[in-house]
Amino acid sequence: MTKTKKITISVAVILIVAIAIIGTIFDLQISRALADLSESQYYSSNIFAILGECFGEDVLYLFIMLACAIIFFYLLKFPLKQKWLTISLQVLLCCISYLIAFYSFNKTINYVATYLALNSTLALSNYVNSVIGIISIILISFVIDAVIFFLVEKIKPEILKSLWKWALVILIVAVVSNGIVQVSKHIFDRTRFRAMYFVGDKDFSYFTYWFTINKNKIPTTSIYAEDFFKSFPSGHTCAATSILLLVLLPYYLKELDTKQNKIIFYTVATCYTLFVAISRIVAGAHFFMDTFIASLITIFTIIITPIIINIIFKKLSSKNLVENEPTKQDVDKKEKADKKTLNKQA
């Protein structure tokens, strides 16, 4: 490891610890300053909060569908030795992709229906829960999924060969990061800020710190009770932070490995993650530390997953179980070595 990398990692660790300490101390105060809630409503009517809640997770679902499509067509162009295994994996990928399309679209529509019911006379929820509404969601989900597969099908085989490991990283990151978040929610049972506000706890006596397991739950029979204790960590922020997977693209696809593309990917990913994280605080759905820890979970998973995958494939390739495909770094090294050889010959 170079000296620059050591300094970068040290600064990052110090910064994370500092933010965590400050965030923990002022967790409640940040929510009291930013949350935009009405006493008679559980959900915020703030447009910023509404957009974050309705669409904040969708980027992860799009990534998963994209990954399924990439691996599907990769297997179509470069099938495994066992034909039955190739077909089985392709069927599984199609099923996963469609289920994700249906789940995400249905969830988004229900969020929109909830907010429309609160802020207008349009009862979209009645349509969503009707037979025609359910059929519409099923069909539209199929169309969304089909469009993604149609677009990926146009990708050249050599590009698919470079992208399939990136797609594998997406699927692993999605499962691991969201698995950690969902399990943590049920362990810590942290009370949402808006739940305390909704029941009239103006002193926020049910507030707990993010690192403690909540044993002082609000006694309630509210229709929103099931949602009261899912504050830590933030599922929306965890999903939104997965947009940082874009940053990995240049490492798998040499055509995108330019300074301009890297700046664009980092900027888009950072802005989108911040938008969703702040919107969750404004909605009163999460505290600052809920969003911060959720982001760290996803970021750490994105960093560690490619490393583990490369180690596994190198071990498999050394045993001749899989073909060792060169990474972008390997290609760069080879090109430099070739140039040196040519210069010496000249």
Structural features, described:
The chain has 15 helices and no strands. With 346 residues, the protein is mainly alpha-helical. It has one domain. It is globular, with a radius of gyration of 23 Å. The two termini are 34 Å apart.
Tell me briefly what this model is.
With 346 residues, this protein is an all-alpha fold. It has helices at 3-25, 27-34, 47-55, 58-77, 83-119, 124-128, 131-153, 157-188, 193-198, 225-228, 235-241, 249-252, 259-282, 288-318, 328-345. The protein has one domain (3-345).
Topology (elements, then pairings):
Elements: H1 3-25, H2 27-34, H3 47-55, H4 58-77, H5 83-119, H6 124-128, H7 131-153, H8 157-188, H9 193-198, H10 225-228, H11 235-241, H12 249-252, H13 259-282, H14 288-318, H15 328-345
Q: Biggest β-sheet, characterized?
A: none
Tell me the fraction of residues in β-strands, as a range: under 5%
- Total strand segments: 0
What's the order of the H and E elements?
Answer: HHHHHHHHHHHHHHH
Globally, the shape reads globular
Any idea how many domains?
A: 1
Helix count from the secondary structure assignment: 15
| Helix percentage | over 70%
